[in-house]
Amino acid sequence: MAANTQDPMLNDEEAQILDSIDRWVDGEVKPIARRFDQADEYPHELVEQMKDLGLFGATIAPEYGGLGLSASVYSKVVARIAEAWMAPTGIFNSHLIMAAAVQRHGTEAQKTHWLPKFASGEIRGGIGLTEPNAGTDLQGIRTVARRDGDHYVLDGTKTWITNGVHGTCFAILVKTDPEAQPAHRGMSLFLVEKGEGFTVGKKLKKLGYRAIDSAELVFEHCRVPADRLISEAEGRGFQHAVGGLELGRINVAARGVGLATAAFKDALRYSQERKAFGKPICKHQAIQLKLADMATRLEASKLLVEQAARKYDTGERCDLEAGMAKLHASETAVANSLDAMRIFGGYSYSTEYDVERYYRDSPLMCIGEGTNEMQRIIISRQLVERHPL
Questions:
Q1: Cα–Cα distance between 254 and 256 in angstroms, integer?
Q2: From CA 80, how far away is CA 86, in angstroms rounded?
Q3: Cis bond before residue 363 (omega within 30° of 0)
Q4: Given 14, 321, 331, 369, the catalytic residue
Q5: Exposure of 184 by Cβ count < 10 A (0-12 exposed, 13-18 middle, 19+ buried)?
Q6: Rounded Cα distance, 111 and 176, in Å
Q7: In this structure, which long-range contacts are made by residues 10-18, counting pairs with CB atoms below 8 Å and at least 24 apart in sequence?
Q8: CATH no. for 3-120
Q9: 131 is catalytic
Q10: pLDDT mean across residues, the chain
């Protein structure tokens, strides 16, 4: 199916990229998803193919070796991959949040040195924000960095870090001034490569989102050159990290669209194949109501993602739009996966069907990149700020 027949807003190059993604998904991702998910095995060969496709440079500017995709096209790439298997999208998304921090806020020297290596996949990694005692409340982090000549020394622990085992470089949020008030004024973001003083703890076992590695990162007197401080200015790390989360939330929303699409398509097909009481179950009103709700939620999510992505592409602040898209699309993925389970009935519990994986994978998106409870607070605050009396 040609991408440009689906979306007249795409130019020829963008349509060709999406066609390539479709062919790759059909030929390489779908055939292995169930096996690698159930084995919780990292898809090394798939990652090498992702390098060749340019996915590690998807949103990195062409002058640094990337594809330079808009957030709008990028979200479509993510949705198409997630429709087949959500886990691989995390491998390059976390990496691209790190890259976005450098591209948006780094010095020219930092961009020239790091972005081409990020774009090629030579250096892969992610972003280290969450800690054992600080998730949504990033200002509560305890990892610190103190200046020591032309280096900083990092001490602390990060957890639930995507690509933690197989990645080699991470954007790590720390406190360079633990006494600063408010706390975000004393926070900085560093690029930290694995080496002495930087160890990886255990790979975390998960309900869903398997195969991709989530791990604990431990820093013990880890010496980092001062030029690894993004923008080379202390106290701006919180803003750099939160700005990257706008793209991260659009990605999560796109994953939600992909997963919700898969659940809907599988349920729609199965409802026409399965018969009960002498007719296909899609002829029964109870099933019809579920299919209608699934389709409507899905279409609304697509529009919210597109709105957020287009605003991100203009360079405008889009935490309201990204929050709305992330909230609605992730909840849609959960709702659609549960409705698909009900339509499949007893077969939904069989690992021979993908619907059980959708059900396991979907709740993560309501938690990751800021919980949906926090999204609601952000949305509400932005509404009041934008529409004062």
A1: 5
A2: 9
A3: no
A4: 369
A5: middle
A6: 22
A7: 10/73, 14/69, 14/73, 17/67, 17/69, 17/73, 17/77, 18/73, 18/76, 18/77, 18/80
A8: 1.10.540.10
A9: no
A10: 94
Q: Can you name the CATH fold of 125-235?
A: Butyryl-CoA Dehydrogenase, subunit A; domain 2 (2.40.110)
- Alpha carbon of 319 to those of 141, 254, 326: distances in Å? 22, 15, 10
Element (H, E) at 126: strand 125-128
* Residue 265: closest CA among 84, 35, 24: 84
Domain 239-386 has CATH 1.20.140.10: yes
- List, for residues 9-30, the tens digit of each pLDDT value: 788 888 999 999 999 999 999 9
Pairing of strands 125-128, 169-175: parallel
Q: Using one digit for the tens of pLDDT, what is the confidence trace for 290-327? A: 999 999 999 999 999 999 999 999 988 888 999 999 99
CA-to-CA distance for 247 and 263, rounded, in angstroms? Answer: 24
Residue with tokens 């991470």: 170
**Per-domain boundaries in the chain:** 3-120, 125-235, 239-386
Which class for 269: exposed (0-12), middle (13-18), buried (19 or more C-beta within 10 A)? exposed
Q: Are 119 and 58 in contact (CB under 8 A)?
A: no
